[in-house]
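User: Hi! I have a protein structure encoded as tokens and I'd like to know what sequence might fold into it. I'm fairly new to this, so please keep things simple.
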């Protein structure tokens, strides 16, 4: 039976008046984590927006036990915490909640190490595609052509294909999700919680401030990213790859919503919309991700992504 949001817990997991911006996807995502995993969860959060959203000690705007840690050490701290709980005989799910900078850039060495060791943690990359908390600087996960305060004419490099890089570690579970389809995210979280070893979920998280859109459109933009093919929802479980149903229907480019419908709602892509060459470069970035996804779906590419 399909998961219904009406059947999920109704408790408040984020306090009113916390420090999140209007339309913040991180408060949405944190709510779904708690709905999926319940109270037996500890979060490990490196520097980022969620460090600020909590508020100032001794009070917190987020109803989780949280370890705040330095940028580069979230995965290693979580690995040690998971081992400690196991030694104590306590069944506690240790979840890293880290941004794109703390995952793809500054924290990648710890992430890769934990994946290589197959440490028993759930790692969630909350991908808002820039260093939002420190002034909207570009990260390795900023897409081609996007405006940031350090790429004010548009980023000239493609987005790092991080879910595929983690998949190449051949860990038990890798998935992508978005705040626009909460049922899909919750189901993937619950599946990850049943698997022993390293689990990675890449969460698409549109940021109204950094992406320059109206805060009421967060969920719509997250859904458009999937419907246009700009973000692919998939699962990789014990060597088997499959597109999630919300993305499966868009494997044929002819069935997708035009990419411009996604881009035009965001101020960060205005130079792309005005430059046909930049628009084609961004399409090429998206097409490359789909090429790998479809090869993996057909079993024609190994987890190591050999060319």
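Assistant: Happy to help. Inverse folding works backwards from shape to sequence: for each of the 307 positions I chose a residue that suits the local structure. Here it is:
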């Amino acid at each position: 039976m399909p998961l219904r949001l009406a059947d999920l817990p109704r408790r408040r997991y984020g306090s009113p008046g916390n420090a999140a911006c209007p339309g913040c996807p991180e408060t949405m995502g944190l709510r779904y984590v708690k709905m999926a995993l319940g109270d037996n969860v500890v979060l490990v959060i490196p520097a980022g927006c969620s460090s600020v959203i909590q508020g100032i000690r001794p009070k917190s705007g987020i109803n989780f036990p949280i370890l705040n840690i330095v940028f580069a050490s979230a995965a290693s701290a979580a690995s040690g915490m998971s081992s400690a709980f196991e030694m104590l005989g306590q069944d506690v799910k240790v979840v890293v909640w880290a941004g794109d900078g703390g995952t793809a850039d500054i924290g990648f060495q710890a992430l890769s190490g934990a994946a290589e060791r197959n440490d028993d943690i759930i790692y969630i990359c909350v991908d808002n595609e820039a260093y939002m908390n420190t002034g909207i600087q570009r990260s390795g996960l900023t897409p081609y052509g996007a405006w940031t305060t350090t790429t004010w004419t548009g980023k000239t490099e493609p987005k790092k294909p991080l879910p595929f890089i983690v998949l190449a570690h051949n860990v038990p579970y890798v998935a992508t999700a978005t705040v626009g389809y909460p049922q899909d995210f919750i189901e993937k979280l619950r599946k990850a919680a049943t698997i022993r070893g390293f689990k990675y979920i890449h969460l698409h998280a549109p940021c109204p401030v950094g992406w320059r859109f109206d805060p009421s459109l967060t969920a719509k933009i997250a859904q458009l990213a999937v419907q246009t093919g700009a973000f692919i929802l998939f699962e990789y479980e014990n060597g088997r790859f499959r597109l999630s149903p919300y993305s499966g229907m868009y494997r044929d480019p002819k069935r997708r919503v035009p990419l411009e419908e996604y881009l035009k709602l965001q101020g960060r892509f205005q130079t792309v919309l005005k430059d046909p060459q930049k628009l084609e470069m961004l399409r090429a970035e998206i097409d490359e991700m789909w090429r790998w996804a479809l090869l993996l779906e057909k079993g024609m590419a190994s987890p190591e992504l050999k060319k």
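A useful reference point when you look it over: The chain has one domain: 23-297. Feel free to ask if any position seems puzzling.
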